[in-house]
Amino acid sequence: MRLALVSIMFFFALFSPVFAGAGTEGGAEQNSPEKIFKRIEDLTTEFYPRAKIKRKSNSMHIEFKTRPFAVPATGAVEPGPEWGGILVDLELIEGPYKGKDAVPKKFNEYSFYHVVLMAPYSRTHDCHLLIRVAYPFDRAAEYVKQLGEIVNDLDSCL
After folding, report:
1. CA 120 to CA 44: how far, in whole Å?
2. CA-closest candidate to residue 113, choices 44, 67, 152, 151
């Protein structure tokens, strides 16, 4: 009896609309950053083979050779890249960018590294990719340039 009940429950769960993909509105897919995150991960491993890359559903964190730095303009302590390092945070967010800073923007209040904020918007998918890149003065300009080319092609990557 118990086995029959479990079998019936399994059958209905397996063929329910939620598992069949009909749970989304009109069968449309939600925006998935999988393709663009894969391209960014490939670029990162090309430039920084030992970088730590952590991915969640709509966000990605990349770091290599980072440590806490005191930010002179604010007095706050936050992680930043050492010479030869990189620190990148990305998040796919629904709707247009509504932050206080105009983007793209390069911040000047950091003494030991550059910080660039980008938020390319996809009208087709009504979402933007918020990106904060921190890189030292010694290198990474080519990495940031290629990263910008990838994220500015947001429409074709979603």
Report:
1. 19
2. 67
Cβ neighbourhood burial of 33 (10 Å; 0-12, 13-18, 19+):
buried
Task: Dump pLDDT digits (tens) for 18-55.
Answer: 333 333 343 334 678 899 999 999 999 999 999 999 99
Distant-in-sequence, close-in-space partners of 60: CB < 8 Å, separation ≥ 6:
33, 37, 40, 41, 53, 54, 88, 89, 90, 91
At position 125, the amino acid (one-letter code) is H
Q: Which helix (H) or strand (E) is 17 found in, with range?
A: helix 17-20
Alpha-carbon separation of residue 118 from 1, 59, 97, 102, 110 (angstroms): 59, 14, 10, 9, 17
Residue 27 CA to residue 80 CA, distance in Å, equals: 42
Q: Tokens 């086995």 — which residue?
A: 3
The SS3 assignment for 145 reads helix
124 phi/psi in degrees, rounded to 5: -60, -40
Packing angle, helices 141-151 and 34-47, rounded to 10? 170
**pTM for this structure?**
0.77
